[in-house]
Amino acid sequence: MPATNETLKTEETIAQPEAPLNAPPELPRPTVSLAMRWVNYLFFAPLVGLATVLFGTISLACGVWDENGRQQHALARVWARVLLRVALSPVKLEHGERLVQGAAVYASNHLSYYDTPVLYAKLPFQFRILAKVALWKLPFIGWYLQRSGQVPIDQSSSRTGVVSLGRGAKTLESGMPMVIFPEGGRAFNGELQVMAAGAAWMAIKAQVPVVPLTLVGTYELLPIHVYALRPRPLKLIVGEPIPTVGMTTRDAEALTERVRAVIYETYVAEHQD
Hints:
Elements: H1 5-13, H2 34-62, H3 70-86, E1 91-94, E2 105-108, H4 115-122, E3 128-132, H5 141-147, E4 151-153, H6 158-173, E5 178-180, H7 198-206, E6 210-216, H8 218-221, E7 234-238, H9 252-272
Parallel strand pairs: 1-7, 2-5, 2-6, 3-4, 3-5
Antiparallel strand pairs: 6-7
Helix pairs in contact: 1-6, 2-3, 2-5, 3-4, 6-7, 7-9
């Protein structure tokens, strides 16, 4: 991509803010009893692994003829529902009427490896995800991402990041919704992290709305670096869509702050109940 003035401005726009904004109080790190660890070793972990390999293999086979990804997405939804059943963790979708018909960017907080199954299980339409390019190297997961048309983001430099976001914008322009974790990684203590402006930038480029999504409970279910499930009810709360018509990429940071504020307020309110 030629280094135009617009490109250089975009590279500045998608950079991470220098300091985090308000964050809800850190949640205590969940502890897992010895008995629950054995339940995980003997029950949860083998079933999660088996389901991932089984559905991943079937999805790879479907990828030979499934050009639009519909069958692979359907399999991913079944896989997600199986993982949630295995985890004994039902999910409640709140304000599902706010989901947009057609292309939109769905921006979610990121708490756990179980965030992805929740999103696949509860969002009732086909979508694509923007994920770190490193995931494409993982067996089954990477193969599925490649065959099903997901969008890798290469953050090795600002320039490759812009090229990756450009691919995401084209996906949106084709009419396909996208689901993104603007924080870039899982929260270590359940707090809301700084959000990069890439999701907002893509939405503005494609002139599609941004829909904030707030996940609740997945941190307590499976926090980062704790390899044991702690079953509990989960929530996926849909925020009001934010239109981007008339915005330019210079508005990406402000739009990101607006999305983060919605997720922050929703998340804090849920933990005060």
